[in-house]
Amino acid sequence: MKSDRPKWAIYTDGGSIGNPGPGGYGIVMLSNGVRRELSGGYRLTTNNRMELMAAIKALSTLKEPSSVVLYSDSRYLVDGMNKGWASAWRANRWRRKGRQKALNADLWKMLLDLCERHQVKFVWVEGHAGNRENERCDRLTQQAAARKNLPPDRGYEKQQAQAPTLFDQPGVE
To answer: In whole angstroms, what is the distance from residue 131 CA to residue 26 CA?
Structure first.
């Protein structure tokens, strides 16, 4: 990574109580002795959306292009970026190989756009395995998801409104 950019180590986590259910994300950001903790949540969302949202919120707070090592216990997030799945979905108009719609396209787009601004290396860490910063993110996530009066996850609600119901399937009456 370029040495002229600010360097950050960022730990993220996301989850929901039920899936879907109330959800939250937690973030720990470290750079040159600076420590930031962020968290937030939504009244109805999914685990995967909160994992993505944590990375998006963290990268969005960086005021200038930075070199980032982003640690997450989410294979969905880390593999989606490192294996090029998200880029392939975008190139395929948010369709997966089997032509199914890629889920959470709204968040993947935001994340890909942020990764064009910042140099980001995604690193998977095992969850609940004693990593101090990952454990802190988990606590922040749980606290955020348990808050009262959480705002809507408009992207999730829109996605659900567009999803076919059981009765929209051929042959189901």
So the answer is: 14
